[in-house]
Amino acid sequence: MEARARHHHHHLRQLRAALLRRGHPIPALPAAHPHPDRAHLSAIRAAAASAPRLALAACACLRRAGLPPPGPRALPALLRSAARCDGAGAYVGGAHAVAVRVGALGDGFVGTALVGAYVACGRAADARRVFDGMLVRDVVAWGVMLDSYCQIQNYEAALLLFAEMKRSGVVPDQLILATVLSACGHIRHFRTGKAIHSYMLVSAILINAHLSSALINLYASCAKMDMAEKLYNGMLRKDLVSSTAMVFGYAKNGKVEVARSIFDGMPEKDVVSWSAMISGYAESNQPNEALSLFSDMQENGIMPDDVTVLSAISACANLGSLDKAIWIHSFTENNGLTKTLRVCNALIDMFAKCGDITLALNIFNGIPHKNVITWTSMIAAFAMHGDGKSALVLFEQMKKEGVEPNKVTFLNLLYACCHAGLVHEGRSMFRCMVQEYMIEPNHEHYGCMVDLLGRAKLLQEAVDLIESMHLGPNVAIWGSLLAACWMHGDLKLGAFAAKEVLELDPNHDGASVLLSKIYAKSGSWNDAEEVRGVMKLHGVSKETGSSWMVLNDPNHEFAAGGGKHPESDKILLKLDGKRKCSATQREPCDFFQPGGKLPMRWYPQDYLQKAPMMNMAMRANPASGRRLAAASSV
Question: Disulfide engineering: 111 pairs with which of 72, 125, 134, 402, CB 3.0-4.6 Å?
């Protein structure tokens, strides 16, 4: 026994020497220390200042030296150190066992520290079990548990816990109120957030800068910019958080000019501010401005994070420029951001929309642990490029890997079948979704099936499907049927579908134009003239389609039937010469053959989904790109 004690004291002396070399001395501790818990606390604090794992080693050495286990004073410090170690879950679990052994779980400080430790290592369920078992739960304990739900983005659970806290009689402090307001903003619970604001006013709670920022963020997230602006203008000192919230709110609600004005007036900007403004440009279909600001951000010495990069990737995808896509991919690789799964998923989508399916596939194959979004993104990429068979093969591989598909996965599979004309496979995917995975189809799924059947001239089957829908058909579904009827010459059914579209959307230009053409084609000139008259009366006009291409960096836009391009005369002259030259050489272009390469870069996904017949040559502008295939084919 004496030899064993000497051995443990030797380890303790070694630990003390190691800590002393690192500049964190602890006193010499005899085996019979008068205050063993203080001894543990002293050792843990000194060791934790150097490295969290050393704190655990210090505690173990003290135990071997004969001291009892750490008590209520030392356990919170031990738990904080355990949560900072690699593989923290096991260490926190061990500290939890020590707390149970010494009967310290009844102590409020220990319980709160244990909840916080489990939260820090990502074990929210264990944190909640400890929290529910606590005899005394003060405002700090409630705050830690609320914060844990917000960290894992379970905002609904955070609001339910806050309601439970109110029922228990615990009065929330400013930090808790700010946390709950943030949760309301994330899930756009305007009524709950407004009720909390009213509670703060009635209870005469001091609304400090932190709470003001949380309220501004809430109202901005819920598109209540008038309320957010009123709070913002009433602040004596507009801090970084509140200004960023205003930038985010205005940008999110399409007022990017106002957002940019606030952004430019901010004396200091952090990565969140820059990200909010870049995201605003990307979501407002201003990709060039987004990428320009992304470059300015780095010139100002601010390093983009994965959130910023996601907005830049979205801008590149929207722009359709492969050169810029390769540039942003290189940036993510050089800065270690390709280790983030959501960045890799976005890169797959970007390369697909910029026309390079090979690079998209390379990114996909390089991801070691793929989630459902990864698989769905690659399936969507094949769908964009009209490669339905590859999309279906990938789906089978996805099932073998044990990844369960969701609604979006099946939507892209149906699009893939639609673009490739795979009717049997499309029916099979629809049945698989409903019967095997119990996924309720929505309007988009039905619209895809109607489009698929309509293109295959299975008009009666498309009508039967519409009649069997559990929810009422919308404009897109009737529009798909209308386009198919016009394509295959079923004027009677087409007129019926057009009327259904116009009943739901009287100002729908595409349906009005097609209905007029259907009447004209069937010889009903009076009806055709009446439709044209109604269009004129309501100010409905067919939007001009446009396309663009990237050549030596600038974007060149061309409008149907117009001389929008500054060099349109030269282009028309050149095309006229080419047309005469090719009159005697009628060989088909290789890129229109099966497996041929596309000569241009484009790809807005929603336009591809609605107008795949045009997907070899043009990218529609955002306004016309959202129109139905029926309108686009006129």
Answer: 134
DSSP secondary structure letter of residue 565? S
Considering only 92-96, 219-223, 628-632, which range has the smallest mean pLDDT? 628-632
Under DSSP, the state recorded for 523 is T
317 closest CA partner among 386, 407, 381:
381
* C-alpha dihedral sign at 304, 310, 311, 312: positive
Sort 552 into a burial class: Cβ within 10 Å, 0-12 / 13-18 / 19+: exposed
- Asked if the model's pLDDT at residue 581 lies above 60, the reply is no
Report the distance separating Cα 612 and Cα 625, nearest Å: 11
Per the confidence metrics, is the pTM higher than 0.70? Answer: no
What is the radius of gyration, based on Cα positions, of the chain? 32
Left if phi > 0, otherwise alpha if psi is -120 to 50, otherwise beta: which for 103?
A: left
> Could you tell me if 364 and 394 are in contact, meaning their C-beta atoms sit under 8 angstroms apart?
no
| Distance (Å, whole) CA 258 – CA 269 | 17
Per-residue DSSP letter, 591: G
Q: For residues 142 and 72, give the distance between their C-alpha atoms in angstroms, rounded to a whole number.
A: 20
9, 298, 472, 546, 627 from 512: Cα distances, Å: 91, 50, 21, 20, 13
In which region does residue 281 sit, left (phi positive, over 0), alpha (psi from -120 to 50) or beta (all else)? Answer: alpha
Burial degree of 618 (CB within 10 A; 0-12, 13-18, 19+): buried
